[in-house]
Specification:
Blueprint lengths: L1 H18 L18 H7 L8 H11 L4 H17 L7 H10 L4 H15 L9 H7 L15
Length: about 150
């Protein structure tokens, strides 16, 4: 029970950070035609056809965290970037992944799910609004946020 409560607590604080003072919702339910998993959200921060190593590395570091506290901090770093880019996320998916990641062998399962989400996201999926597609292609190099742990 404690694992579920801890996972839910982290997921809710990530949602609060993501939504913080926004009039528009940063939560978007995951659907097959609009993937909002963490991997897909991270991929949307990159230019079409390119993989930005610093951003991709953050996703990998979240998957290799030794404990929930470290994972939560690394996910916060990602959520701050998503917030800066106005990229929505289905926060229920990370909640389930945080719970799964605490079980034996669960971290491998979560890394696979995030990796699939990252690599199966397409630049302009069917049904995606044009404004969101344009936002996904913007240059993120002007972002002032830096990850103090990245090396």
């Amino acid at each position: 029970m404690a694992r579920a409560e801890d996972a839910l607590h982290v997921a809710l604080t990530l949602y609060a950070l993501h939504q913080q003072s926004r009039r528009t919702g940063m939560y978007q339910a995951d659907r097959p035609d609009r993937r909002r998993g963490l991997g897909a959200a991270v991929r949307r921060m990159m230019k079409p056809g390119e993989i930005a190593p610093p951003i991709h590395k953050r996703l990998g570091r979240a998957g290799t965290a030794a404990d929930l506290t470290t994972c939560a901090q690394r996910l916060r770093d990602i959520v701050v970037l998503l917030r800066l880019e106005d990229i929505e996320l289905d926060h229920a998916l990370p909640a389930g992944q945080l719970y799964t990641g605490q079980r034996p062998g669960g971290a491998d399962t979560v890394r696979r799910e995030r990796g699939r989400s990252f690599h199966t996201w397409h630049d302009k999926p069917t049904g995606r609004p044009a404004a969101a597609a344009d936002r996904a292609t913007t240059d993120t190099t002007a972002t002032t946020y830096t990850d103090k742990d990245a090396s």
